[in-house]
Structures are given as structure tokens and as C-alpha cells.
Amino acid sequence: MKAVLITQPGAPEVLKLQEYAEPKPGDDEVLIKVKAAGLNRADVAQRQGNYPPPPGAPVDVPGMEVSGVVTECGIAVTMWKPGDEVCALIAGGGYAEYVAVKEGQCLPVPGGISLADAAGLPETIFTVWSNVFQRGSLQPGENLLVHGGSSGIGITAIQLAHAFGSRVFVTVGSEDKGKACLELGANKYINYRTQDFEQELKSEGVDVILDMIGGAYFSKNINILNPGGRLVYINFMKGKMAELDLAKLMQKRLLVTGSTLRGREYGYKKALAEEILLRVWPLFESGEFKPVTYKTFSFNEAAEAHMLMESSDHIGKIILVNENFR
Ligand SMILES: NC(=O)c1ccc[n+]([C@@H]2O[C@H](COP(=O)([O-])OP(=O)(O)OC[C@H]3O[C@@H](n4cnc5c(N)ncnc54)[C@H](OP(=O)(O)O)[C@@H]3O)[C@@H](O)[C@H]2O)c1
């Protein structure tokens, strides 16, 4: 099969479509013929040599989510059969014509959603569900702040929080991105290049914050949280060290937490998939959640796709499509 390889750590040009060994499904795995693979910011860090995948995942083929058709099932597989269209959360190796994945990390392609769009669903939905709704316990009527509102994570968090009855604030780097977030259900955007989100939101009060920025945002987040507020970290793009005012933590009874999804055990991911199928998948049918695909590229344009992600010009997801898929 062909796969997009990180031929050496470096700039986007190190990504090359080459021959690669086809994976064999284990007893509880399905083999997926890949139609499309979603890009995630972590793929960029992996390509640069800054983010080794967890044990068992290929180090030289990026890709944490795919869509496609099941072509083979291990002997213990009960959930799927050959011919089923699925999208799947994987720990790596998604930029490839075939992927082997445990059956419980697959979800059916939602009705009316194309295979290409479905490839961009798993990573952000699993991440947002586990961090905003489980870890952050966002409740209907509460206010959520999402930093990076136009990111793949942001467009997912906005739609889910809106659908479940929360008010959503976002930070963005341009007016166009802010307007796109409003169209997806956000109530207010703060252009972080021209406005200070702490000033803009201190009178609103925020119950849950999903932050991928870190650094100087930390103390501002602490300042605008309501009593009982929850601050959830999924990355620290602008710095991992921060100073915490313990008095504010205690006086407002705040919770500061965070998580990474990629290295979590199978049982956790399977349980998450089951909850998402019950709670999120109906939102596709009701029209309350839709994929936001900014641009698709073919597998041999993976370098261009990474350049676009690094430019941050995109709103929503960037998808690689396997043009050999039949
Ligand atoms: N912990 C986990 O399990 C987990 C799982 C998935 C993703 N993540 C993390 O979630 C983040 C988003 O991932 P993605 O794949 O959705 O990436 P992405 O689409 O590339 O999004 C990155 C976003 O960061 C925004 N940004 C940059 N500087 C900012 C600032 N100072 N203030 C506010 N926003 C800023 C960019 O918006 P502008 O262009 O407007 O600046 C862009 O929308 C990444 O950091 C990723 O590592 C974590």
C-alpha cells in the first residue's frame, strides 16, 4: 500500500507518498480501507520530531483519525462486518491506504455525511466530549470559553456546547474567523489580536474554559472564572509554565485540570465512543452538528496540507483524501 511518510524530522516537504507495509488486523481489530484522513495540530509536531506517538503506533506515518470501509475483521470482532462505512480514532498511521484499528474506536459514518467529511470528526469530538463535558462537566445554561474558536477543536466545542444549551465565547485571530464562529452557534468572539479577552469577558463570567494556549492566558483564565469554575487544558501552544494565585483558587473553589487523549488505554476510548454514539451522533440527524471541512488535499499533497495548517488560515478541518480509493 501507499502511505505518507515522515522521511525525516523537518519542514512539510519531508512528507512523501511512498510504499509501506500493509497492517494486519489483530483479533479485536478491523482493517479499514482509508478514504480520507483528518489533519490535527499534533501531526505537525510529530512531523517536526517533537511529538513521538505512543507505543504501538507507527512513528513515521502521521494521522490520528480516518474514514473508510471495513475490508477485514479479526476473529473476535462483533461490532462490524466487511463493507461497513466507519470513521475511527487511531493513535497514528492514518495517512495511509489501510489502517488496522480496535473495533471499539470506530463509529458509523453519520447519515448524510460524506466519507471525506467523516474523517475529520473523531479526534475533535472525542477530545471535546472528554474534556468539556466529562472533565469540565459543562452544564446547560453555563458559559463556556473556547480559545482558538476556529480550530478543528473550536468548531466542535462551539457546536456541541451550543446544542447542549450553553452560551459560548471564543477567542480568534481575525474578524472573519469570529464571524464563522458566530454562524456555528458562538454567542460572542474576542479577536485576541485587538482585544483583551479578560476585559471583554469579566462581566459575563465563565464557568468552563477549554484552553490550548497556556502561558499568559492562564492567569486571565483564572480571573474570569465564576465560583466553581473549571479550567481544562488540552495544550500549551504559548508556554507550559504559569503562576497560580492559590488564594483565587480557594476563594472561587476552582478546578484546574487537563488531559491528553492519544496515549489513553483502549477501554477508555471504547467507553468514550459508546457515549459519543449515544449523545453526539443524534445531533447529525437533528442538524445541530455539522462537519466543517475547510479544504481537502490528495495524499500526495500532504506537504501543502501541513503548510496550510501551519499558516493557521483555515477555519475548521483540513482533510487528506486517498484518490486511489475505489
Ligand atoms: N490534549 C488532547 O488530547 C488534544 C487532542 C486534540 C487536539 N489538542 C490540541 O488542541 C489544539 C487545537 O488542535 P487543532 O487540530 O484543532 O488545531 P488547529 O486547527 O491548527 O488550531 C490551532 C488554533 O490555535 C489558535 N491560536 C493560536 N494562537 C492563539 C492565541 N494566542 N489565542 C487564541 N487562539 C490562538 C489558532 O487560531 P488563530 O489563527 O485565530 O490564531 C488556531 O485556530 C492543538 O493545540 C492540539 O494540540 C489536544
TrEMBL record:
<dbReference type="InterPro" id="IPR011032">
    <property type="entry name" value="GroES-like_sf"/>
</dbReference>
<protein>
    <submittedName>
        <fullName>NAD(P)H-quinone oxidoreductase</fullName>
    </submittedName>
</protein>
<dbReference type="InterPro" id="IPR014189">
    <property type="entry name" value="Quinone_OxRdtase_PIG3"/>
</dbReference>
<dbReference type="Pfam" id="PF13602">
    <property type="entry name" value="ADH_zinc_N_2"/>
</dbReference>
<keyword id="KW-0560">Oxidoreductase</keyword>
<dbReference type="Pfam" id="PF08240">
    <property type="entry name" value="ADH_N"/>
</dbReference>
<dbReference type="InterPro" id="IPR036291">
    <property type="entry name" value="NAD(P)-bd_dom_sf"/>
</dbReference>
<dbReference type="InterPro" id="IPR013154">
    <property type="entry name" value="ADH-like_N"/>
</dbReference>
<keyword id="KW-0521">NADP</keyword>
<feature type="domain" description="Enoyl reductase (ER)">
    <location>
        <begin position="10"/>
        <end position="320"/>
    </location>
</feature>
<dbReference type="InterPro" id="IPR020843">
    <property type="entry name" value="ER"/>
</dbReference>
